[in-house]
UniProtKB/TrEMBL annotation:
Low complexity bias (residue ranges): 82-99
Tagged with keyword Cell inner membrane: no
Cofactors that this protein relies on: a divalent metal cation
Biological pathway: Purine metabolism; 3',5'-cyclic AMP degradation; AMP from 3',5'-cyclic AMP: step 1/1
Protein name in the entry: 3',5'-cyclic-AMP phosphodiesterase
Active site: H592 (proton donor)
Stored InterPro entries: HD/PDEase_dom, PAS, PAS-like_dom_sf, PDE8-like_REC_N, PDEase, PDEase_catalytic_dom, PDEase_catalytic_dom_sf
Species name: Trichoplusia ni
Domain PDEase: from-to ranges: 515-857
Length: 886
């Protein structure tokens, strides 16, 4: 402990020690104009003095050599309040607010009750020690001192043991050599021959030795000296003696003294033991505890206090104000009995103070306060840092007091908040990072501090364009596309351009030809290849006359994955579900139609075949992933959420401009499904299973929102690549290979990240497909963007992606930007996770081809297809393939 329990026991005597004189001691006890008079009064025995409302009485126990046991004051100083007006001036009384000056009558009762310290309650059981035979040590320089012999024989008669030594050195040796159990209860020191034995010096040395607080020290003085001066005892008491006794050879006198010493000794030992026990308890507290004297000088500081504030273990009493500030200090000074208020504590190794909730209490055995207890709650954040043993670390980790306004209310509520057992993981991360700065080189500290500053923002996952020369695509097309993908809300409105549907109205299936789910031989052959990465999706689109989803869905969901078993539904219901979902895709959209849904479904199915996912996902989770993929863009209007917001479309209004399309896709999926028993693939699931599947489907559909792209990617990377050297996000931007760590898969929350990543990658997997597919998808999305721009211009709406104008837009550049900013990082992370390098290989090779085209001056859609030697890949495919009906 910084300050020890022994300081608690004798802080009053230390006060005297520091002044070196009784006058100074008295002056300190009464630090008012009255004190000088008190000193004079002390010199004039039995003087009583009244002034300015005070009565000071000094009484000297001259007639008894036995002063009060266990009390270092042979002379007792009483400072009384005078309640009447007879002796104090009214002005003086009215003007003072100190606890000494104010009379109890001047204050409201409640206030008085709260200001007088509670009687310190020490349970009686704590103060009991079993009686022991008395151990006496006599220190008498004279070889055959008769006084010494009288004392020893009295101890023997009382059933105790006595020994004697002749010098101060021998006495101290005996104390230091003996184990604690053998320390004497009483030490009698011959103070009659100062030239041979300096008794006060020896007493100080004894009191400076460990565990001697309970030893009763008796100084033997000559009768002549004793009777000469009223204050003869004071230097002895100041030096640490408990009692001053006149030399005597009387066996009776010695016997009485010895018996009193045994009783007093037992009581003193019990008190010390009780204080030691309480100090040990305080030391084991998590909270920061300090006990001060009535002048707020710290007498005891527990281990938490020392550790958190950077105190050494051996510091003497010091003013609390050097370390603490705030409302708590004001409360403590007000004399309140019990209070709760925030305290700011300065730490030695950190510039920023910490703000902690603090409870305090004034303690006193009498009406006046002897001790003040401060218990500062160790908040979780401080404790986390403590775990790192870093004081330095606390600087950034927990509480930023500088940001706290000076008004007390805010500080109080902040302190209360910090007292709550709540802590966000980010707080722990900041604490750990801050701890890592300890002892680190300045450059590392600077890096960590910058990282911590970034972590402190609430926009953790908001992407910022990287300042990477390699990546600096100062291409307005790429900037336009990425900017539009990553931002949501009104930029700067649902088009009925290709659909006049109220999107929340389930489309009737009747306006479509019922699908033939009897597949032709060629279609069967094609569907047999549904689990290859170069699956001919556009051929399927053509063969099924724009209904690829139902056919592929039935083949994959009903066939290979048998989700009917997991969902406990029949294949017919699944077919109906697929059909109605497909019906609710807009066939007029060039990109966001059911072919895109089928493509994403095919990608998810392909991923699910990978060993990593097979081992991680339950059949029901796989089923949910396939359902989510099939439905993830249902009723997509062919325009972006930003467009809907700008157009003040009912969906944007319904979803408050937040995740408009994804919310709609997820909600409509369930509306369609639950609307009709014939399509309700969930109808046989029990409540909990339904809940689980629903949660999974919704979560995955919402994960396709591109504004959250970097959030999902960063979380995935941080979890599954966290253990390689350096930040994985940084690694992603270098050519260093990623080091995969899949141990985190044991946590369900991390499996969620995997499912999100899976559908995200599937959603934009077109850029990682073989070139002929990737280029067709690029054409389709560009066409859809162009149509949106056309509509925005026609309706005088803000143009979300002005660069996507069919007359001027460079398709190669838009694809280069898309791959650079969205695809590569994500595919690298996912490819490594599921062991599918072709994802990255295709993306890179597509990127290279787009670059070639760009460098060749190819720009518009028409240019691209001309350069590729045909008007459209899809057109080429269409011409070559038979349809499903053939
Ligand atoms: N090849 C591509 N080029 C440019 N943008 C794309 C490409 N593929 C997908 N996207 C965009 O990425 C988005 C992913 O979510 P959506 O399907 O809602 O809408 C998609 C398009 O806006």
């Amino acid at each position: 402990m910084g300050c020890t329990p022994s300081m608690l026991l004798d802080h009053k005597s230390r006060r005297r020690d520091s002044t070196g004189s009784q006058e100074a001691a008295l002056a300190k006890v009464a630090p008012t104009p009255v004190c000088n008079k008190a000193v004079q009064a002390a010199k004039a025995p039995r003087a009583s003095l009244e002034s300015d409302g005070f009565s000071i009485q000094l009484s000297s126990k001259k007639d008894s050599y036995v002063s009060q046991m266990g009390n270092n004051f042979a002379t007792q100083l009483h400072i009384k309040r005078i309640s009447g007006s007879s002796s104090g001036s009214p002005g003086a009384r009215a003007g003072r607010r100190s606890s000494l000056a104010l009379t109890p009558e001047d204050e409201p009762l409640v206030d008085v009750a709260n200001r007088s310290p509670p009687p310190a309650h020490i349970p009686n059981a704590m103060l009991y020690t079993p009686p022991e035979p008395l151990e006496l040590l006599c220190v008498f320089p004279e070889r055959a001192s008769r006084v010494c012999a009288a004392a020893c024989s009295a101890v023997a008669r009382a059933g105790g043991e006595a020994r004697s030594v002749r010098s101060a050195r021998d006495a101290l040796d005996a104390l230091r050599r003996d184990s604690e159990a053998k320390l004497p209860h009483v030490i009698v020191v011959d103070a009659r021959q100062p030239q041979t034995l300096d008794a006060p010096l020896l007493a100080r040395a004894i009191r400076g030795t460990k565990n001697t607080q309970h030893i009763i020290l008796i100084a033997i003085v000559k009768k002549s000296a004793y009777l000469k001066d009223d204050f003869v005892v004071l230097p002895y008491l100041d030096a640490g003696f408990n009692r001053v006794m006149v030399e005597t050879l009387s066996a009776t006198a010695w016997c009485a003294e010895v018996l009193q010493c045994r009783a007093a000794g037992a009581s003193a030992r019990a008190q010390v033991a009780a204080v030691a026990a309480l100090a040990a308890a305080v030391d084991r507290c998590r909270d920061l505890v300090a006990v001060t004297d009535d002048q707020q000088r710290i007498l005891l500081a527990n281990k938490s206090w020392c550790r958190v504030l950077g105190w050494r273990g051996d510091e003497g009493p010091r003013p609390l104000s050097e370390t603490a500030g705030g409302e708590a200090m004001r409360q403590a000074s007000s004399g309140a009995r019990d209070w709760e208020a925030p305290v700011t504590l300065r730490r030695r190794a950190a510039p920023d103070p910490i703000l902690l909730p603090c409870r305090g209490a004034a303690i006193g055995l009498t009406k006046s306060t002897s001790h003040i207890v401060f218990v500062c709650e160790q908040t979780h954040a401080v404790e986390t840092e403590r775990g790192r043993g870093s004081l330095h670390s606390i600087r950034r980790g927990s509480l930023d007091v500088r940001s706290v306004a000076s008004d007390g209310l805010r500080r109080t509520s902040l302190a209360k908040l910090q007292g709550l057992p709540l802590e966000a993981p980010i707080t722990k991360v900041i604490s750990l990072l801050s701890a890592a700065t300890e002892g680190a080189p300045p450059s590392t500290v600077a890096c960590i501090e910058r990282a911590v500053d970034m972590l402190r923002t609430s926009e953790l996952y908001s992407p910022q364009m990287r300042d990477d020369p390699k990546m600096r695509v100062e291409d307005p097309v790429a900037t336009d596309l990425i900017g539009a993908l990553l931002s949501q809300g009104p930029t700067n409105t649902l088009s009925s351009r290709r659909s006049s549907n109220d999107s929340t109205v389930v489309r009737s299936q009747t306006n479509r030809t019922n699908i033939k789910h009897k597949t032709t031989g060629q279609l069967r052959e094609l569907l047999d290849t549904a689990l290859s990465w170069d699956f001919e999706i556009f051929r399927l689109e053509d063969m099924t006359r724009g209904r690829p989803l139902a056919h592929l869905g039935l083949a994959l969901m009903g066939g290979r994955f048998d989700i009917c078993a997991a969902l406990e539904c029949d294949e017919r219901t699944l077919l109906h579900w697929l059909t109605i979902i497909e019906t609710n895709y807009h066939s007029g959209n060039t990109y966001h139609n059911s072919t895109h849904a089928a493509d994403v479904l095919q990608a998810v199915a392909y991923f699910l075949e990978k060993d990593r996912l097979k081992s991680v996902l339950e059949p029901l989770e796989a089923a949910a992933a396939l359902l989510a993929a099939a439905a993830h863009d249902v009723d997509h209007p062919g325009t972006s959420s930003a467009f809907l917001c700008n157009a003040r479309h009912p969906l944007a209004v319904l979803y408050n401009d937040v995740s408009v399309l994804e919310s709609h896709h997820a909600a409509l999926t369930f509306k369609i499904t639950l609307n009709d028993n014939r399509v309700n693939i969930f109808k046989n699931l029990d409540r909990d299973t339904y809940k689980q599947v629903r949660h999974n489907v919704i979560d995955m559909i919402l994960a396709t929102e591109m504004t959250k792209h970097f959030e999902h990617l960063a979380k995935f990377v941080n979890v599954f690549y966290a253990k390689s050297s350096g930040s994985k996000e940084d690694n992603m931007h270098t050519d260093e290979p990623l080091a995969l760590d899949t141990t985190a898969l044991s946590l369900p929350e991390n499996v969620i990240l995997v499912k999100r990543m899976m559908i995200k990658c599937a959603d934009v997997s077109n850029a990682s497909r073989p070139q002929k597919f990737a280029f067709e998808w690029a054409r389709r999305i560009a066409e859809e963007y162009f149509l949106q721009t056309d509509e925005e211009k026609a309706k005088d709406l803000p143009v979300v992606m002005p660069m996507f104008d069919r007359a001027t837009c460079s398709i190669p550049r838009s694809q280069i930007g898309f791959i650079d900013y969205i695809i590569i990082d994500m595919m690298e992370a996912w490819a490594a996770f599921i062991d599918m390098p072709e994802l990255v290989n295709h993306a890179r090779s597509n990127h290279a081809r787009w670059r070639e085209l760009d460098e060749a001056g190819v720009s518009t859609l028409a240019d691209v297809w001309r350069a590729l030697g045909h008007s459209s890949i899809h057109g080429q495919l269409q011409a070559a393939q038979p349809t499903a009906e053939e």
